[in-house]
Design a protein that fits this description.
The chain is of the alpha/beta class. It folds into 2 domains: 2-233, Metallo-dependent phosphatases (Purple Acid Phosphatase, chain A, domain 2); 238-326, no CATH class. It is 44% helix and 16% strand. Strand 7 (189-193) and strand 8 form a beta hairpin. Helix 1 (13-25) packs parallel to helix 2 (44-52). The radius of gyration is 20 Å and the shape is globular.
Length: 327
């Protein structure tokens, strides 16, 4: 039995299609979806509906889907923050049955993998989400890569050490499953903790580990044991971006989607750099609201655009600016 594990689609329906086609071509007929299916690109309905209608599949709710329930109790007259423009528009665009499906997903599930093996899936374990190591933050991953480039093998070795640290190994071992699956940080990874496998399939729709190919993982129990097969699927991001730029979503959230486009082209997390700039501006104005004021958001976007070339076709300019920022 082969099961494809997919996470963090972020509205990227073309990437999801490519990944699911690749999974089936590699013998996977079962699917586990690990949250964050919507926002960021104008294909949230298509992505969520594909997941809804996929046979032999299970799905959990991510933090993006959790936003929907909170937003459903808010007065839309107060939805005036440019920072949230793409989120507001996605909420309004979601079809009713898609909306109901997403808000009623479970936060965690247990699934049979065949061969008497079970998996536990959650978007991210609560005890792991706020840990300070760079592995669980794509922005820290980016900064550390700029400071001293490291190999994937080095990353996996450190991730394995983190998972097996006294701080986390006990918590992982309390979960009664052979495989513990989570996503959230857009960094494909795997480790062993005692007799358990820890699997993060990375991001299908917005990978941030310096590789922009869509990421997912296959769990193969055909031989009675669990084999982890990590996959990356190349697809053409430019038509995705071109179509997105013609959408209402882009008009409502140009600054945010600009960051999304940069991530799609480079596989890197520029969101962290953007928010550092926005925080500095907000602090200089003594602003402390939940969201940035529209003037601060606009100023941050202008300053970010000056520091970082947002067209990844000119990689030399991106790298030059990153080195300046890192110093």
């Amino acid at each position: 039995m082969k099961t494809a594990v997919i996470s963090d689609v972020h509205g990227n329906y073309p990437a999801l299609l490519s990944v699911m086609d690749d999974a089936r071509a590699n013998g996977a007929n079962n699917f586990i979806f690990v949250g964050d299916y919507i926002f960021d690109l104008p294909y949230s309905n298509e992505a969520a509906r594909l997941i809804m209608e996929t046979e032999n599949s299970r799905a959990v709710r991510g933090n993006k889907e959790t936003y929907l329930k909170k937003m459903s109790g808010e007065d839309q007259k107060n939805w005036t923050f440019d920072q949230m423009g793409a989120v507001y528009q996605t909420y309004r665009d979601l079809e009713p049955d898609v909306f109901d499906y997403l808000i009623n997903l479970d936060d965690e599930i247990f699934i049979s993998l065949g061969a008497d093996k079970t998996a536990y899936a959650v978007h991210t374990p609560k005890f792991f989400i706020d840990q300070p190591k760079f592995h669980c933050s794509s922005s820290r991953y980016h900064k550390r890569m700029l400071e001293r480039p490291f190999t994937r093998e080095e990353y996996l070795s450190e991730f394995n050490g983190l998972v097996n640290s006294s701080e986390y190994s006990a918590a992982f071992n309390k979960i009664n499953a052979d495989v513990i699956i989570f996503g959230h940080n857009h960094l494909q990874s795997r480790a062993r903790c005692g007799d358990k496998l820890i699997v993060n399939p990375g991001s299908c729709g917005q990978p941030l580990d310096f590789n922009n190919a869509a990421a997912y993982t296959i769990l193969d129990t055909s031989d009675g044991e669990i084999k982890i097969i990590e996959r990356r699927v190349k697809y053409d991001v430019e038509p995705v971006i071109k179509k997105a730029m013609e959408s209402v979503l882009y008009e409502k959230g140009k600054a945010w989607l600009g960051l999304v486009f940069l991530a799609l082209r480079t596989g890197r997390d520029y969101f962290g750099f953007f928010f550092e700039i926005a925080n500095q501006i907000a602090e200089s104005k003594n602003e402390d609201g939940t969201f940035y004021t529209n003037s601060t958001w606009s100023e941050a976007n202008e300053l970010f655009s000056q520091r970082f070339k947002t067209d990844s076709n000119d990689e030399s300019r991106i790298n030059e600016n990153e080195k300046i920022n890192a110093r």
